[in-house]
Hints:
The complex is a heterotrimer of chains A (318), B (218) and C (490). With 318 residues, chain A is mainly α. Chain A has helices at 2-32, 42-52, 63-82, 98-118, 122-153, 158-167, 175-191, 210-213, 219-244, 255-283, 292-313. Chain A has one domain (2-313). The two termini of chain C are 29 Å apart. Chain C has a two-stranded antiparallel ribbon. Chain C has helices spanning 2-18, 22-50, 57-60, 66-95, 103-123, 127-145, 151-182, 194-199, 206-224, 232-239, 242-271, 275-297, 302-323, 326-357, 368-371, 373-387, 393-407, 411-432, 452-470, 474-488, and strands at 52-54, 63-65. Chains A and B meet through helix 7 and helix 11 of A and helix 1, helix 4 and helix 5 of B.
Amino acid sequence: MKILLYIVIQLFVIMMVAPLLNGIIKKIKALSQKRKGAPIFQMYFDLYKLCKKSSVVSDVSSWVFKVTPYIVFATAIAAALLVPVSTMIAPEQLPGDIIMFVSILALGRFFMMIAALDTASTFGGMGSSREALISSLTEPSILVSLFTVGLISKSTSLLQIMNVMKDKGVPLVHPVYIMIFFALLTIIIAETSRIPVDDPSTHLELTMVHEAMILEYSGRHLALMEYGAAIKQLTFITLLVNILIPHDQLIALTGISAVMLSLTIYLIKVIGVCIIIAIAEVSTVKLKLFSIPNLAALSFILSVLGFLQYFVLGGRYV
Amino acid sequence: MSNFFDTLSVLILFSSFILMANKMTKSYIKTFRIQSMLLALAVGSMAIKSIIEEGRFDVLVVCLLIIILKVIYIPNLLNKAYAKAEYKVEKDFILNIPILVLVCCGLVVFCYFCLSTIDGINDGVINVQVVNSISVILIGLFFMISRKKAIGQIIGFLVIENGIFITAMFSTQGMPFIVDMGIFIDMLTAVMILGIMVFKINEEFDSIDIDKLNNLKG
Amino acid sequence: MGIFLVSVPVIAVLMFILFKNSRIQHIISLVASSLSIIIAVYLTRNVMLFHSVSYSAWGGIFYIDYLSIIVLDIVLLISLIVSIYSIGYMETEIKHGKIDRSRLSLYYILMYSFIFTMVLALTVKNMGIMWIAIEGTTLSSAFLVGFYNDKCSLEAAWKYVIICSVGIAIAMLGIIFLHLSSIGVLESQQFLDWTALYDNAKSLKSPIVKLAFIFILIGFGTKTGLAPMHTWLPDAHSQAPSPISALLSGVLLNSAMYGIIRAVAIVNRNLGSSIYTGRLLIALGILSIFTAAICILAQKDYKRLLAYSSIEHMGIIAVGIGIFTPLSIFGALLHMINHSLTKSMLFLTSGNILQKYDTKQISKIKGALKLLPVSGIVFLLGLFAIAGMPPFSVFASEFNIIVSIFVAKRFFVGSAFILLLAIIFAGIAVNLFKIFYGNNQEEDLQRGETNIPGTVAIVVLLVVITITGLFIPNELKDLITQAQNIIIGM
């Protein structure tokens, strides 16, 4: 019964908040460029509009093309369910762990890449190959950083990790966590196709990665793809804030008001991270594709340094 | 408090990684400045601690000197020396950046394994600050061999100096005051001499590429 | 009186800044170095009477004992000879148009700051300040190495500053670790104090002391010119003006070696045996001799050849210290004195040859005995001396070290040592002896010496090394024995 309640609340929060983030980031960018910008709820309107329209499917494409939007959306939802937005609503045990989280996302990405190849358009192939490069570069650092926190909390379940982190108070001043925080932040930027890795707002063939892959989609399919991407972004941010900046230990209340308070604080944290991402986007320029390995190497080094610090400290106060 | 210093030491270590991943001479200087700021922050917190606990003001003087010399004066001096050098080709590293960064990571691991067998660095538990700061020294040395430009070598030297300074701070809570002063004077003179030499080398060889210095052999 | 020794070079530097006339500058230089020698004699007498001299001024950092007085005497003696030699040398350089007359004061200012830093390094007991002074020697001599401002000398100066500064920085790390090992043992005003460290050596933390020694050996070893950190040495020695080469080789290397010896004394006393330091020092020493042997065999530049010979002799001293028996330490300290005198004599003579022929290539020099009757003979005899022929003093000390190696039953080290020395002898003979004979093709070279006072000084040096090769004065023997007791800890 509790797990059903968890799924309902979790899905509701994730699906409601996810499109909001894109709106906030776009708004901050617009304000920094002295523009008024679109309203922050613009993405909801876009999704509604796209859902009403019919989708155009190329004659030469196979079933992969049609099934991919659903798989991408489903994997994003499934991954989101593994990362509770608040430990208050979660049951004692959650099925699934870090490896499952990473591989579910990899499944969605795999389908996205082959669907882009499926239409045989030049942009699709280009986007897929770039996406494969970027994801293969970022995956090691996701795994190393998640395993480090897993090692500290002696568990690979994300809920368990969050519970252990919660008991440690605010661990961000600790050398292990600060490294992992920045590693995950870099990964979020790379995984969610943001500047400096990818530019979400252009359709310039020289630079686009994610946009190139969904170029052939329209209507309902496009809505699912975009929604899936937004959910993935929120999932990563949730992972970051709930593991490294836990807040549930601060709440003394019980019952429904505690959950409400917890979710509010969660929202504030997520918006905070969005602001960081937006500032990063505003203040940097897009890297050329061959410089992305350097960024990925730095992110990997951050996570490995965090990992090393854990060993160097020898469990002194982790 | 020790958590705070651990974090600072790891940030200083990471700033040397960023230095390694930089491509342009300008950004070496910028990263060096950031590293020196972190160093000043660490020394400054120690200064406050020592004023409160022991009433000693000498660490504070050291901190102020770091800010004046390493954060303000030396980076400006290097920027000037770099602006004077006419021949500018930006790419000056031998291996590509991910490999350089991974080698540095190996250096940290090496340093950890070397120091973990030595008793007495810290009672029983290896001192993370010492490991990190000695790694900074090793990365500085590696930076010197991985860059071909004269300015890169000066920056590497300065990073080594920073690493030694932070090692002294973290392991012994500061050297005797007169020694600290002497180190500063020496370092400042060294950088000024090297700056003048960069200028002369640029005049004589039309480049600040160290690979061109190959007349003397055998 | 003793503190005045440190201030003599400082006052000299100030005078050089004030008086621009070159004649006055020469006189100041002579007076300053003679004054230093007089003070050194006084200090030596005091040390022999009271075992050590220390002053309470400036927190009592000044401290001279048997070990430092030996090196200090070498420094001041050679700087006197170099200052005599410099007059003629620099005047000739100015006449030949190699340098401007305006740069003469720069030369003297840098030279005396160089001497100042070396004297400072030898008269303080705080290892931190000793480090600062040794780093100061690099900085003050950097522009002396690059004095001619051409491509080669700039390259040499750049390598010299970069390699030595980094090496010395590593020595700093070693000193920090030494400091770390003494925390909790020493009072805060005794930190880094050599005598305090030495007296309490047994209670320092051994693992950190071991770590510290490696860093100190590598760091000061760079400055000493031990292989494989020697690469700056041949460049710097060959490109510097000859008087400066004499100072670098005869004096600077000893000052850095002095730092290593001080550290060895502490570490061996702490560990209770010399196995640890011995292994490292003997390995580096033999490697240095080996490197020098290889490079001397294939050398085309006589100043570089002499520089490699310095690497060899530093290796010999390192082996002597590494064996760590009373006899070997005695040999090493004696060798330090003998090598300094012989090598600075050779470098000064090579300056005469360089000015006469205007080339550093061995193959372009012919008939040196005819063109330079005095310098040629001195150079020839000096080469025999440096290669270890009796009756010169280098033979005596090398023989001491070889005997001590075999007495310590290090047969492998001993045989390698002798073999390498033989190769070096052959290398010097094959390469350099051809410059003395034959006739010079170029007719425009005049026969005769140009630098008369310098040549007299060189001849005096030759006489000194011959006499000390035949017998060692009792006072000197006593001094070295006392220094050896300090190192070994009796």
